[in-house]
Task: inverse folding
């Protein structure tokens, strides 16, 4: 029996000619006929819409909701308040990242917690809640023109500020909107009841927003230097190794994995995440060795061609003992051949002024 889940908007994606493929247990659009590079550049220059309904939504509510999440997740909820969103991690006892999560604090005692596609069950096992993933569609409208495009069809949605959360009415239904995304661009993510999802998606396209697949979402997040669970984050990679110290609420009480992180912070990390720019259009690939001279110093975790920069880019972990820093030359070994590169600061895009 096929256990693959299908997005409620799959009929729209197929009608638009999307290439569908399995992703996190779901059949999702990877690219449309325009292609990943066109979709990527449209997000950087105008606006695109991604169907990200494969992400989980776990609703944690009631008088104990705040305390439950506060003692489970790494970030400190006292840094925000109702009507805000926060990036955080769920760790194991060894300090590894079980999942990276966005918390939408919708109202005083209601949190919509957004785990990655395949990690919803792990999230619920850690902090409880109700899985409401099947009850909604989530669309991410991203790009510098995202809000302007939305203004004509959904002004209240367009007005939700960055990292804020609002419930608004559209098409007679209550929708939840967060000023979040995963592209490095401005925009919103909209959780819609199934009753209005098709109509809203159609209206967004009619407003001139281009549909984009998860292929472009991946190249966009890589250019923006954003970690992806299963690549730069995993059950054997800690937030400190991924240079995400800011996601840890050191000044709050205990949380899962805290003791292991404190020990690692005291001892220093044995490896850390770096950005690498390579020469030419050949894309570095996950799993490739990073070398200095004849010495292997690390491994690529994500790599691809950058549509905005016109050359290859990669993120990976390098040994702290190699004592590398930004500007140092490295090579990435692909099929026994060395691809020349150098360490650069993250994010890759937008490029920093020299």
Result:
């Amino acid at each position: 029996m096929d256990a693959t889940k299908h997005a409620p908007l799959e009929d729209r994606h197929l009608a638009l000619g999307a290439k569908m493929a399995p992703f996190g247990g779901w059949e999702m659009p990877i690219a449309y006929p325009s292609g990943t590079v066109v979709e990527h550049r449209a997000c950087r220059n105008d606006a695109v819409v991604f169907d990200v309904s494969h992400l989980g939504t776990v609703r944690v509510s009631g008088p104990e909701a705040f305390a439950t999440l506060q003692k489970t997740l790494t970030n400190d909820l006292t840094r925000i308040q109702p009507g805000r969103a926060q990036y955080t991690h769920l760790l194991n006892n060894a300090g590894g990242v079980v999942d990276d999560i966005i918390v939408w604090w919708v109202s005083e005692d209601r949190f919509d917690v957004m785990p990655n596609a395949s990690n919803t069950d792990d999230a619920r096992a850690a902090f409880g809640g109700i899985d409401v993933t099947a009850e909604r569609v989530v669309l991410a409208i991203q790009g510098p023109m995202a809000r302007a495009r939305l203004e004509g069809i959904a002004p209240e949605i367009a007005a939700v500020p960055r990292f804020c959360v609002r419930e608004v009415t559209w098409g007679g239904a209550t929708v939840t909107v967060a000023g979040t995304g995963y592209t490095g661009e401005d925009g919103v993510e909209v959780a819609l009841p199934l009753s209005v999802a098709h109509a809203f998606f159609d209206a967004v396209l009619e407003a001139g927003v281009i549909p984009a697949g998860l292929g472009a979402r991946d190249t966009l997040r890589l250019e923006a230097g954003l970690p992806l669970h299963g690549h730069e984050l995993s059950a054997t990679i800690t937030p400190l190794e991924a240079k995400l110290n800011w996601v840890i609420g050191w000044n709050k009480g205990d949380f899962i994995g805290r003791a292991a992180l404190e020990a690692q912070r005291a001892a220093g990390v044995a490896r850390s995440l770096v950005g690498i720019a390579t020469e030419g259009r050949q894309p570095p690939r996950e799993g490739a060795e990073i070398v200095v001279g004849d010495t292997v110093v690390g491994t690529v975790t994500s790599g691809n061609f950058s549509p905005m920069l016109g050359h290859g880019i990669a993120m990976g972990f390098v040994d702290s003992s190699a004592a590398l820093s930004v500007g140092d030359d490295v090579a990435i070994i692909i099929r026994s051949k060395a691809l020349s590169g150098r360490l650069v600061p993250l994010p890759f895009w937008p490029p920093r002024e020299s």
User: Anything to note?
Assistant: The first strand starts at residue 5 and ends at 6.
